[in-house]
Amino acid sequence: MSLRILKSSSYLTATELNLFSSRNNFELFRNHTVAITGANGMIASALATLIYAGSESNGFSCKKLILISRSWENSALKFLIDNPNVEVFENMELPKSIAPEIIFHLASPSNSTGYSNYEELSVANIQIVSSLLSRNTNQVIYTSTGEVYGSGKTDEDTVLPAFRDNEFRSFYPIAKIMGENFLLELSKKYAFEAKIVRLFHTFGPGVKYNDGRSFADILWKGFLNKKIILKSDGSQVRSFLYITDAVDALLKIMNENSIEGKRINVGSEIKTSILDFARVASDLMSVPIEFENRTNSNFIHSPNQILVPSIKRLKLLGWEQSVSLSKGIQSTLGWIKDQDQDQDQDQDQDQA
User: Fold this and answer.
1) This prediction's pTM
2) DSSP string, 139-198
């Protein structure tokens, strides 16, 4: 499949696909079986598309690209399903013959609206990845979260805070820490490379309307409602990284042997408040910002006032952020506009 066909199939633009393909090393994928869990998610979907596009543009492909998701409805990856080098699975029901050498594990709810208890997170972060491991596995890239730092220091060697296991907002970082430790122990036992990627806020085309995080609400609901509503004063400081920069980081980490068994942060080191993010989006959409402070049983604010990564370890790999906040928001809004137009066309066809 050529990049020309991928243009209209991917969340990402043809320019983004071509830039990504030209600046990354895809040699490790040659003749290997690669598995991506949570493949319908924003980051995993972009990763799958970019791996496929990059391999094709460099004249070779994976032996197999295994895509795993709970559901394939309305997936941006449907264009890959008929490709003989791609296999798609639901609910982790994999045949024993599937033995990936490289595993990208991204299957986990990433916000408090995506799970109701700790057990769901445990299944996503431990049971799924352990079911994929085999004697053929030589590398696992496990995506954790910057939330494991709380509001403290964020260099990778920081002693992590003690989370209360009876607090709902603590379930996610606890599950991620457990997943990190579980994978590192397994890697010693079964002799594969384990790399822990602590992701901070990542956004871009593919972000879901019901994602639940502030940046998704700002972009989607701001576009649809013609106004941005903040549920706080917007003073919380975060790290916002565009999706292609995040996937670039994942591939650099995969290609680097010196970080085996280590944690590495992936995010923007630029401090940006929620309100600053909203202001950039507001200017691009020409819509107002309104404040609606509320606290109830269905909405729990994050306890972390500041969450911005130290990325010294990532920079040593030669990684640099290439997409500005404004450019990333503009690209994401363009994609959201396309989705809205596609839905309108579908409704028109249904009524015809």
Assistant:
1) 0.88
2) EEEEEEEGGGGTTS--STTPPPPPPPTTSGGGHHHHHHHHHHHHHHHHHHHHT-EEEEEE
